[in-house]
Amino acid sequence: MPQERIRYAPLRDKISDPATAARHVVDGSNLFVSGFSPVGYPKLIPAELAKRAASGERLRFNLYSGASTGDGLDGVLAEAGVVIWRRPYMAAKAMRQRINQGEILFKDDHLSFTSAQVRSGGLGRVDVAVVEALAINEKGHLIPTMSVGNTPTFVRQADKIIIEMSDACPLDLEGIHDIYIPEDPPYRMPIPIYRASDRIGKPYIEMDPHKVVAIVYSQERDHCPLFPPPDRVAHDIAAHILDFVQHEIKAGRLPRGLPWQSGVGDVANAVLLGFLENDFFHGLDLYSEVLQDAVLDLLDLGKVRHASGSALTFSTKGQDRFIKELYRYKEKVVLRPVEISNSPEVIRRLGVLAVNTALEIDIYGHVNSTHLWGRELMNGIGGSGDFVRNAALSFMVTPASGKQERISRIVPMVSHVDHSEHSVDVVVTEHGLVDLRNLAPRQAARAIIDHCAAPAYRDLLSDYLERASRAGGHEPQLLEEAFAFHLRYMQTGDMRPGGVPAAGRQRVD
Amino acid sequence: MPQERIRYAPLRDKISDPATAARHVVDGSNLFVSGFSPVGYPKLIPAELAKRAASGERLRFNLYSGASTGDGLDGVLAEAGVVIWRRPYMAAKAMRQRINQGEILFKDDHLSFTSAQVRSGGLGRVDVAVVEALAINEKGHLIPTMSVGNTPTFVRQADKIIIEMSDACPLDLEGIHDIYIPEDPPYRMPIPIYRASDRIGKPYIEMDPHKVVAIVYSQERDHCPLFPPPDRVAHDIAAHILDFVQHEIKAGRLPRGLPWQSGVGDVANAVLLGFLENDFFHGLDLYSEVLQDAVLDLLDLGKVRHASGSALTFSTKGQDRFIKELYRYKEKVVLRPVEISNSPEVIRRLGVLAVNTALEIDIYGHVNSTHLWGRELMNGIGGSGDFVRNAALSFMVTPASGKQERISRIVPMVSHVDHSEHSVDVVVTEHGLVDLRNLAPRQAARAIIDHCAAPAYRDLLSDYLERASRAGGHEPQLLEEAFAFHLRYMQTGDMRPGGVPAAGRQRVD
Fold first, then answer.
1. Does ipTM surpass 0.90 in this model?
2. Is B289 among the residues known to form the active site?
3. CB-CB neighbors (< 8 A) of A373 in chain B
4. CA-to-CA distance for A256 and B305, rounded, in angstroms?
5. DSSP secondary-structure letter at A442?
6. Is residue B212 within 8 Å of residue B11, measured between CB atoms?
7. For chain A, which end, N or C, has fewer CB atoms within 10 Å of the first or last residue's CB respectively?
């Protein structure tokens, strides 16, 4: 392993092989790993743990991270059957299945809270932290790779630390991170971020080198999916949002210069790409969670001045491009702990414009972003709650329908509420946008049906609204048929009456 | 009117009678009033407006306040049929009825957001602000009475200001208010509160005296209900909370010194009174919204050092007691704008322990605090969302049952979600307390049924949970019968099967 990766000489004695290193994780451990989105997570130790379980060793542990990781961690460990608890978020198919079967315990947390919970001891001892690193500096402190997540707190609280020293990123990445662990109540000072680009901490994670029990050398790269160019639906949703914000700024109701947050996925990416074609927006700041490929284009064209997040989730092509001109990007990009990137205090102060994706939205603006049919976990709430509740303006987006219109994503009542009408400001589908901020519930329902619902569902939804309104109430609902759309789909494979009965129960996945 | 109430001499020319003053409110006006809870709201101008409507004058306007007011405002104006829009919160029976009938438009807002919305122009022009005042100082600035709410922003943004100069409070109240209007994004500094007692603003509301079009003299007192001593249920809920917090502090998972917020109502009051009998807690701080009579006892005994809120909602007896020894209370009590008392930034920084009341809670910890039967507005979300989402620890409390056990307040699925499982930490009824923070949904459901539900409903809820769990999913629900409890009550007047059929649909109110 090159010496410049371990600049603190005493730690060179800790170089080990993955199998030996992984021995520090024992049955019943609390295991805390680096990683936020499928970047920056350890890949070698998980493989060893799975191997041990496959060999018949009794090995079960609790697994905590920054957010989701990749299949090399969540997938491998879920399939190995070694995970008791998983928090705070995941996005791997094998993990999801076992959580839905009740085999893996999961609690769906706001991401901004996990580090504080760990520091308070609320998740138990941090027996072992396994973290991917770019390098260890001269003082024995740790420099992370493409994500920060909860790693600073995990490293601080850990009894033992295992490091996967990765050579997938060049050492020039050093300096991109801004590590700041806030104090905990009741004696806590403000988090001193006043602009999205502000740096308030150190470019490394403070680490007591005596806690490091092993360092393994890794050549594993991160693998993130490359987003295809936005389809028509994503493009139209993005266009509605940009038009609307432009209109609000011109009307004087929204100041220029508010930073943007854009969740993960097609539409979020399309919104960012939409800036490229738009002359009104320039010199933007991003105060977000996960930064994706589109950010590189925006930085290149000067559309975005600064981008702040907790992870750089670039495709392989994006990674190469980023690394090639790192010197240019580094001064414009900052990677923070998730409790800072998602801090309610900072989000409210900066006045973030937040764009997040819904699984379904109801006619009153309640949003389901986590569960299908009220019960099956998709991925989790992630950071959306941190942003939706505290943003200056919160957009919830979804295609109006799915499965060739057999599913309407606008429904009478969502089957699981993650974001309530009180916090959702604007609803957007490819058909249109409704600003809920000055609409009473009956008006909101009328507008969402007329402007956002798929045309094939408007009569059905209108009929529901009219009958519910006759029955009365501030927010008319007929509890006896609020989930009729969902139940019809589960029985026939189509939310519309007269859909062809399916052989069995249908699932969206 | 005594000269010391209007110390800025030019404004003495504006003294008027209520009928003349009220002429500034015309058909189509946006009317913004002082008041937060039934204290500090104007009483004379509303009566005049109602009188004009009763005389056949065409008069309809939009009505905005800090939160609820009293019957002298919301009741009178709702009955007069003059209100088009009402925001952000109300608690008057006549107003509630008309909102539920769709006659008055209402949107249920987080209270911390209204002032910023007004400043951005999102609610339209502030045509007229009608505010109750204690005095106008030498510079022409305004000193409010027993509440602050959104008055500082209303006064700043108003075209015309009408003042009801009240002599119900002594001039010695001056100095209790701490008025600070935060900047608006994107250029906003931190709100510099580090302790519940910190004073960061001025003891008056800055006002341009040229905007004052009329001053009327008022002798109207505020009338707040006196809470009866807590019943057994409230007492037991409070005891569970205090036991739990004590236990968490002793276990080292919760620091000493976190400030408390306690919502409005019996249980909230009982929690505060519980401190009186408890030796563990002393020298507490309250960082709350509405301060009620119990606070006086706590201050007298030194149990509470400092109390911060946006309103002093004392009973008549409490008002007398407070005013009599004002010199003693004034240094321990601070009244703030609601965007500061409810600031997510400050709540998160201080690490508030929040206690709020639910209408119903489901087995997974989702909370309904606003709508009956999914559709009928009770009062609104008020400040609960500001606190629940940002507290260090968020308690949701409810009696386990209502209407002689004909209603279970623990249900399979709440009929309206205001606070989701992601933000609710602890559920409490008189039967027990469940800490949800480390429970997966199926475990949470089991624990809530066993420890919080009324015994008469445990078998019914268990049966539901078991059948739903067999059907699968991370958070098992059977959409076809998720509201069976509610529907049964609406049909028979009892949530249990076999309840006696009622003549018509039942309502809880």
1. yes
2. yes
3. 473, 477, 479
4. 43
5. H
6. yes
7. C
